[in-house]
């Protein structure tokens, strides 16, 4: 079963949807989330897919419930590919970026990505 957390409606779709699949990654997840939320590129949404974690992941995600940019989705454990596919299905942007729960983005990571994909759209 998949449960969605409430999201605050945004007037327009973001340029980039960042998807973080996580399974029992509460030790690393905060660093990954904060690295996305502090991006210099401002038109993004963050979707965290909790793939049936049994550690403190759900509690950590609840601490972000007031963050309008972050949506968390809980599903029964189906594996990382299913978690990524769930994130893609929920994404509102045309461009998707993946981040593993035990990794992080540099502060300008999305800024460069957005520009790169805008160039692709121009030439397509």
Short description:
By secondary structure, this protein is of the alpha/beta class.
Name some characteristics of this structure.
124 residues; alpha/beta; five-stranded mixed beta sheet; 4 helices; 35% helix
Would you write up a description of this structure?
- The chain has 124 residues and is an alpha/beta fold.
- It contains 4 helices and 5 strands.
- It has helices spanning 26-37, 57-62, 80-90, 109-123, and strands spanning 3-4, 16-22, 44-51, 70-75, 95-98.
- The protein has a 5-stranded mixed beta sheet with strand order 1-4-3-2-5, with helices on both faces.
- Strand 3, helix 2 and strand 4 (70-75) form a beta-alpha-beta unit.
- Residues 5-10 have low confidence and may be disordered.
Strands, helices and their partners?
Blueprint: E1 3-4, E2 16-22, H1 26-37, E3 44-51, H2 57-62, E4 70-75, H3 80-90, E5 95-98, H4 109-123
What is the helical fraction, as a range of percent? 25-40%
Helix-strand string = EEHEHEHEH
| Percent of residues in β-strands | 15-25%
Strand arrangement, largest sheet?
Answer: 1-4-3-2-5
Weakly predicted, low-confidence segments: 5-10
Strand elements, count: 5
Largest sheet features: 5 strands, mixed
